[in-house]
Known about the structure:
The structure is a homodimer of 401-residue chains.
Chain A: H1 3-10, E1 18-23, H2 38-41, H3 45-53, E2 55-60, H4 70-77, H5 89-96, E3 105-115, E4 121-123, H6 131-140, E5 150-157, E6 160-166, H7 197-214, E7 222-230, H8 237-241, E8 245-248, H9 252-260, E9 264-265, H10 272-281, E10 288-293, H11 295-301, H12 305-323, E11 329-333, E12 350-355, H13 369-372, E13 378-381, H14 385-392
Parallel strand pairs in A: 1-10, 1-11, 2-13, 8-9, 8-10
Antiparallel strand pairs in A: 2-12, 3-4, 3-6, 3-7, 5-6, 11-12
Amino acid sequence: MDMHELTRELKVQNDSKIVMLVADGLGGLPQQPGGLTELETAKTPNLDQLAKQGVCGGSIPVKPGISPGSGPGHLGLFGYDPIKYTIGRGALEATGIGFELGDKDVAIRCNFCTLDDEGRITDRRAGRIPTEESAPLAFKLREVAIDGIEVFVEPVKEHRFVVVLRGEGLGGNVADTDPQATGVLRLPPRATEPGSQKTAQVAEEFLRQAGELLAGQPKANGLTMRGFSAKPDLPSYEEVYGLRAAAVAVYPMYKGLAQLVGMDVVGEAQTLAEQVEIIRQHWDDYDFFFVHFKYTDSTGEDGDFASKVAKTEEFDAEIVNIMELKPTVTIVTGDHSTPAMLASHSWHPVPTLLVADYCRTDPCQSFGEAECLRGGLGQFEAKYLMPLALANAGRIGKYGA
Amino acid sequence: MDMHELTRELKVQNDSKIVMLVADGLGGLPQQPGGLTELETAKTPNLDQLAKQGVCGGSIPVKPGISPGSGPGHLGLFGYDPIKYTIGRGALEATGIGFELGDKDVAIRCNFCTLDDEGRITDRRAGRIPTEESAPLAFKLREVAIDGIEVFVEPVKEHRFVVVLRGEGLGGNVADTDPQATGVLRLPPRATEPGSQKTAQVAEEFLRQAGELLAGQPKANGLTMRGFSAKPDLPSYEEVYGLRAAAVAVYPMYKGLAQLVGMDVVGEAQTLAEQVEIIRQHWDDYDFFFVHFKYTDSTGEDGDFASKVAKTEEFDAEIVNIMELKPTVTIVTGDHSTPAMLASHSWHPVPTLLVADYCRTDPCQSFGEAECLRGGLGQFEAKYLMPLALANAGRIGKYGA
Lengths: 401, 401
């Protein structure tokens, strides 16, 4: 059962405003047994005030024990069951560099590689060729011309780039051509279902022409293709929730993820203060604002406890300006935990708070992992946060008579 | 969605060790309103220490309000959705007496009964014939010979025994022959799907020959067959988790349940101390150890509060020796609650703790039902314990990018 079957049927229109603040990787771990987490260490008077006013809990991004990537992490927060809905690796990579996928597109993660005279792979990452050398080669591959197909080639970083094939009748189900080994030939693109046979043929032709264009390159004289994927088929926020939704993010990945569920990406903010200003400007145009703050994750990924604390405090400081807009429902959460101690995404529940006039508050006095254990939201799967937001906004009617 | 689809895809190998200690029927109830449960009454300094170090919560064996038998109780703990995966009654009975089922087997719970001259059942349990009288009769039934079929007959207790039919093309879907009434004829074995017609015919022939062998017996001159079932089709621990798993149990039922999910049964321990010694001996051979302690359940089933407290203390005392082995992840839980007050399995959440370096501890200061309510695991379905164990052991990769 998908919650969307309920929200689609029960959704109600009104003038409420919902703001969802996502501090990426928000949850953490203490540095030593009995210690405090990053969030508990940080001085967060504004978040603490919201925790007192509102209702808190722990958001389980996917299921207990599962550490999500950014894709499933955000799908969950957006209310899309992250097990039912998946975003292919190619589609996510394209999304991450700001490429807006269309319905006729197949996106592919590509790696430059080094081939010997007989076409065997000698280095699967082309000696980790630096971006300043690889980007011009990616641009050169734009010369590939295939009948009836529009070809896009976009550099990413080092040996990585993205190819998007656009045309009629392209399916996204083609097996990787990377053999995951050296000393062997690249695998041919092979369709794993009949609807993707044309894609496999087009990819084959791309590889042939690319081979000619890269011939003679010292490092990057070949390429492999992985994660073929069509644009994921996600119903829109408008359709499932009746919400005109805006995404206010700095990084392309999060703008792209929001776009995949039909949010408008608004503004070109580079800082959280600018993001808040953009919300203010667009306050009347939208019902829902997704605000993404990256740095609680990136500092966690760096394993830098102190910096994560500092970034959490920066995040806290801006909260006041958002609350000035008087949202009907304000949510603060993260797409997953990124404890500095692990320097990676983790499975731990994410401290979450929701403030609204009718939220039924709880005893929580501050915003942190331990305090959230006493919270009225309990522990819940992230996908239930949107229905809770709608309910608190008066945007969802009674189920059954 | 089955968690195994995730764990199968995301599993990672490393050198970690996971120990799951199952104190059967662990959860309980106070003897009087406002009192303490068995576990809360027991002096459990070692478990309390683990509760301080680790993260606690309440395990819901199947779903809220559902009291499980040993089969579903353990399947849940092993991470097999106990609603999706079921073990037929015959298969469970065979498992409980240590009969290792094979893929060509159909197991059947049989009852000796008393028939009148016209074949009508006069006593469905053959006057609860004592085991010393019934066991020789079960052995006698081993004389039954059916072409192409291997027949096993094993006594259980009083009027109960098990028949296992082994052969090609035997399905497990045959209706019970016990009419659940006296004064009527036994029902014929009837296949409920085409693939089990041969089984029904073989069972018919078994009943015919058995009738001849039992003719003239004063009490047990007939039998009924119930719970026909093939070996349940459970994926193995190795396949779904990548774990080499060992079961260290005293009672055949729990060895058998572990075997059904592909664990190796190691040792012939008769006491918990011997179980710990066996773990020590096999420490390098396995990644996962399931340790079963029966007596918290059997004392609960007896309605004996004081004995359950004493057995809980015995259990606690051995914990030290297990912790000396320094497992990466230690779990203490039960397959269900068995409150002495109810003298039966119950639906109440089972106190559960998990200790690992990255478990994100919580405020719990001791191990007991009330304290676990403050725990960081919250209340969760037992089937999520294995994914949590894998996550804490670093044995599960990131879901999605």
